[in-house]
């Protein structure tokens, strides 16, 4: 049944929400800031309201003490900025991988939304609105939600591919123009550049690459400048643009959609957003495609590059917790590690500095400590990289893995780690 696509003010659009609802917000640079702020303004009327979503670039304003008991947040991507709200019971962390968001946070799922907020470019002549920089979980959820509210923003790039809702799928919309939330480049140091050089050696010409966010992935992209015919899968970020402009990234040898990159999220600055507008090199795909290990397994020479907080000598990867505290989420790491294991020429890489806390602790450990989360289990761990080299774990025995991993430890910790590993 067609929906009304009724134009509304911000107050009237948010006025359609009711106390007790679960409301799904878009991720990252797709944040619908105007609608978010109006929800804050109506928090007393809406209490209790559960907001839901993934990675955010703001300071979680709805988690401030002023909204205690009024606005809750359910997420699969925790943050230290949520610590106070979590302590008072206003945060629900849901430990799922990104691929599962499209079933858990959509109609029929455990966290089925009562309403979905989307952030769109203006409709075209046929009435189709592109969700622009963020389609990963928002698009599948919106296509099945009881209530869909759209923020239409002329500054949102109109991306192509599987990125569209028709006006007949939207209940009401508000016109609110503002700059998109940006994800700027991060500082890169000597350690990150050394790690990136090791990673680049593992990426063959013609590979399709997936990288996460942060300083190491950024350094990796810079280190790939001498490669040929690379493709991109899942995430498009600012530091890919120089490789695209130089022809290093051309997607020519991709097995899925040759000549196009399959992207669920675009995270960067205004320069990247403008480049993405109506660009036929971009094929937007939600997470039920982009994060599906079966789809990733068809990509052949697929290389996944992600990071970690610590890795033990057997190859167990913790990318989520510190001293038993959840500080981030599973994200897409396991999806892509598993997908790489199914690809004919696939390889997954976990890259991290060998130390943390300004060199005070080793991030290569004899065993993960009690309470640590296992993001990637040892039986699918492939390559681990620090500034001290590369450990190839696939097919190795426990003893062989320990020898490989000890090579990656900082010299200040290597002796103690070796003794601890020998007795564990």
What does this protein structure show overall?
This protein folds into two domains: 6-175, Glutaconate Coenzyme A-transferase (3-Layer(aba) Sandwich), CATH 3.40.1080; 190-423, Acetyl-CoA hydrolase/transferase C-terminal domain (Glutaconate Coenzyme A-transferase, 3-Layer(aba) Sandwich), CATH 3.40.1080. Helices cover 25% and strands 22% of the residues. The protein has helices at 10-14, 33-41, 43-46, 83-87, 101-104, 138-142, 190-201, 215-223, 241-246, 270-276, 287-290, 293-296, 333-342, 398-406, 411-423, and strands spanning 6-7, 22-24, 49-53, 71-75, 91-93, 115-120, 128-130, 148-152, 164-166, 172-175, 208-211, 231-237, 261-267, 282-284, 302-307, 310-312, 317-318, 321-322, 325-326, 347-351, 355-356, 361-362, 364-365, 383-386, 389-392. It has an eight-stranded parallel β-sheet with strand order 1-10-8-6-2-3-4-5. β13, α10 (270-276) and β14 (282-284) form a beta-alpha-beta unit. The longest helix has 13 residues, at 411-423. It is globular and about 65 Å long.
Distance between the termini: 62 Å
Inertia-based shape: globular
Q: What is the overall pLDDT average? A: 97
Largest sheet: 8 strands, parallel
Radius of gyration: 22 Å
What structural class do you assign from the helix and strand content? alpha/beta
Helical content (DSSP H or I, runs of 4+): 25-40%
Number of helix segments?
Answer: 15
- Report strand order across the widest sheet: 1-10-8-6-2-3-4-5
CATH fold-level assignment of the largest domain: Glutaconate Coenzyme A-transferase
Strand content bin: 15-25%
Tell me the number of structural domains: 2
CATH architecture field of the largest domain = 3-Layer(aba) Sandwich
Q: In CATH, what is the homologous superfamily of the largest domain?
A: Acetyl-CoA hydrolase/transferase C-terminal domain
Which stretches are low in confidence, meaning pLDDT under 50 for 5 or more residues running? none
Number of strands: 25
CATH structural class of the largest domain = Alpha Beta
